Amino acid sequence: MELNLQPLAPTCCITGQTFKEGDRVLSFLIRNEKSVEVVRYDLLDSARGEFVAAGFVACQWAHVFKPRKAGENPERELKLTAENLFVTLADPAVELAPENERLVQFLALMLERKRLLRPKGRTADGKRAVYEHAKTKQLYEVPAGELSPEFFLSIQEQLGALVGGPKKTEEPPAAVKVETTP
Prior knowledge:
Shape: globular
Helix content: 10-25%
Number of helices: 3
Order of helices and strands: EEEEEHEHEEEH
Number of domains: 1
């Protein structure tokens, strides 16, 4: 699963204020109503009340702003893969929004199957599964849940917003009954 998205914006999309180190920033991935494009919006937490999503919110997360290091290539992060979406959402420094829990569980399952994550058991209370990222050896805790048919139905809308839903097929024309007279 790959998406092409904008990197973290340097300014708040609501106030236009430049982000400073330590600012609490909210990021949203939104599928616009008029197109199939997924757009990233970054805003200061203090401007949250003024933000109106123009489309379906696929996911959101809060994080502390850290300026890019000199010489860092922002183009490198333009391609958002399932792996770095998981790493972004499951990062211990990021607050996981309740509506993203199922998405993180699904991404963990997908990355485990690709052998990018290794299961390491559960937390002491049994409420979170622990995974180790194969490349970085970083541990991530993911809310444990039952992967039932209802789970996959509930996440279908979020995944459809991120990667595009099935294309609508045209309905066949209604059958026309032709009567013949003898």
